[in-house]
């Protein structure tokens, strides 16, 4: 435990990923990960500040928080940093009118945004709405623009639902990038701007924060590039090395790793909360 | 014309792309490009050998040839080099059993292939069948394999139908590559093996052949890397530089370019046929 104490010295705030760390989505809203409801409650009773830093882009923040509260979590909308509201700010600042390729569940977040005569495309984790027809429409809008602008709400490869691994927005972002010969602007983890806004909202410096997530690139790598310490849980999309189960999501080898099977289990005392 | 005469000196065989060069697909089978039916007839009456080198992967060779004959072209199945039959040869050689993410129209080409208990994935231009569900299934099959193998029948970005630009298989190949952290094996243009097999079937050396296509990467670049001269037509997916129409599909700047608006028009005499 001494090693953990050293590694976490000076931590004043905890950034928590949601999907794969607090719960796995799926049929009927999904299921809380063992120990996570209690862990959040314990963190909130402690001296540490807590903020939820998610790339969830299928649901509005309101719907996400309602779902998590139903699963027993102590969480409110104001505690969540999510890519859809961040994207709306950027669109307004730059006077952009998006063609939206997003899940119906998150469309309400864009209610105040002018989508007429689009001059950019916004894609999010659209799930079943990533049909050929919808992808082709987004592609055609981009190809008609003199300077095609594509925003992607996160660039995750996949996530885990209770029924198995599911393609995230990242692969579809790559598809449109390749089709149009462009590079997307990513809003969400691992974008440094996104981590910085989460820190600002929590009122804690990078050096005083720790990010806990299941994605070695989006959560761990992204946080570390901002000077935030990071821990990878072994739940969610985390996959053990083994004969049949490769760890595809490896990333740079020097990332630290939580040594317990579940960070919400017995070694929770590493936070000394 | 002198310049063209020099450039085409010693040509004994012509490799012809099909989509965007001979015809544009679309409603009711599509439409022949002006001048192309006559151009093929003229080439066939000449001393030049002719072979059709296509990445068409929505239709079987039989269906493609029937469609082209209906449009007036002089073409037979034995004159066509296409990626589906080439893939079947590779699968048999390597003892691979594919999960197929392909259009129903090309499925018959894989009729003799064992698809039980798949140990690789084959994707082709599946069109509307590139649903989220089908993409996710292909992704899950790959993630279950110890050494995921993905074959892509071509890697084109898009093609032109009479109704507009349409996403080709390439963007979906990129999506699965990114999702799984792997690199696909491309069967079709611009793969050198594919061009070599077309040359072999035509009985002409690389230095004696010219490839005519509308894709600067798949047709022109691919052929040139094999030592085959290449010409880009200004039909099909070719897009002029302009204020609103960017030439996205640029590729290396040193590729030669056909200077007429349509290679099948008046400067056809450059072939001296």
Automatic annotation (TrEMBL), chains A, B:
<dbReference type="InterPro" id="IPR006355">
    <property type="entry name" value="LHPP/HDHD2"/>
</dbReference>
<keyword id="KW-0963">Cytoplasm</keyword>
<dbReference type="InterPro" id="IPR006357">
    <property type="entry name" value="HAD-SF_hydro_IIA"/>
</dbReference>
<dbReference type="GO" id="GO:0004427">
    <property type="term" value="F:inorganic diphosphate phosphatase activity"/>
</dbReference>
<comment type="function">
    <text>Phosphatase that hydrolyzes imidodiphosphate, 3-phosphohistidine and 6-phospholysine. Has broad substrate specificity and can also hydrolyze inorganic diphosphate, but with lower efficiency.</text>
</comment>
<comment type="similarity">
    <text>Belongs to the HAD-like hydrolase superfamily.</text>
</comment>
<dbReference type="GO" id="GO:0006796">
    <property type="term" value="P:phosphate-containing compound metabolic process"/>
</dbReference>
<dbReference type="GO" id="GO:0046872">
    <property type="term" value="F:metal ion binding"/>
</dbReference>
<dbReference type="InterPro" id="IPR036412">
    <property type="entry name" value="HAD-like_sf"/>
</dbReference>
<keyword id="KW-0479">Metal-binding</keyword>
<keyword id="KW-0378">Hydrolase</keyword>
<dbReference type="GO" id="GO:0005829">
    <property type="term" value="C:cytosol"/>
</dbReference>
<protein>
    <recommendedName>
        <fullName>Phospholysine phosphohistidine inorganic pyrophosphate phosphatase</fullName>
        <ecNumber>3.6.1.1</ecNumber>
    </recommendedName>
</protein>
<dbReference type="GO" id="GO:0042803">
    <property type="term" value="F:protein homodimerization activity"/>
</dbReference>
<dbReference type="GO" id="GO:0016607">
    <property type="term" value="C:nuclear speck"/>
</dbReference>
<dbReference type="InterPro" id="IPR023214">
    <property type="entry name" value="HAD_sf"/>
</dbReference>
<keyword id="KW-0539">Nucleus</keyword>
<keyword id="KW-0460">Magnesium</keyword>
<dbReference type="GO" id="GO:0016791">
    <property type="term" value="F:phosphatase activity"/>
</dbReference>
<dbReference type="Pfam" id="PF13242">
    <property type="entry name" value="Hydrolase_like"/>
</dbReference>
<dbReference type="Pfam" id="PF13344">
    <property type="entry name" value="Hydrolase_6"/>
</dbReference>
């Amino acid at each position: 435990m001494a090693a953990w104490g050293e590694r976490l010295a000076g931590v004043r705030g905890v950034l928590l990923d949601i999907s794969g760390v607090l719960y796995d989505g799926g049929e009927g809203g999904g299921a809380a990960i063992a120990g996570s409801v209690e862990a959040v409650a314990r963190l909130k009773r402690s001296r540490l500040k807590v903020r939820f830093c998610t790339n969830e882009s299928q649901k509005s923040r309101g719907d996400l928080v309602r779902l998590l509260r139903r699963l027993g979590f102590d969480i409110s909308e104001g505690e969540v940093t999510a890519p859809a509201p961040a994207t709306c700010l950027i669109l307004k600042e730059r006077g952009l009118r998006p063609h939206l390729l997003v899940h119906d569940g998150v469309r309400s977040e864009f209610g105040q945004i002018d989508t007429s005569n689009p001059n950019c495309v916004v894609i999010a984790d659209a799930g079943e709405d990533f049909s050929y027809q919808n992808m082709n429409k987004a592609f055609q809008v981009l190809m008609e623009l003199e300077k095609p602008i594509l925003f992607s709400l996160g660039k995750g490869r996949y996530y885990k639902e209770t029924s198995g691994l599911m393609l995230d927005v990242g692969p579809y972002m790559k598809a449109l990038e390749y089709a149009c010969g462009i590079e997307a602007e990513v809003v969400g983890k691992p974008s440094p701007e996104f981590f910085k806004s989460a820190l600002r909202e929590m009122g804690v410096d990078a050096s005083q924060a720790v990010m806990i997530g299941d994605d070695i690139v989006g959560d761990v790598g992204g946080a570390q590039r901002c000077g935030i310490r990071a821990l990878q849980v072994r739940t969610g999309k985390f996959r053990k090395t083994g004969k049949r189960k490769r760890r595809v999501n490896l990333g740079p080898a020097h990332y630290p790793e939580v040594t317990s099977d579940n960070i919400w289990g017995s070694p929770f005392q590493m936070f000394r909360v």
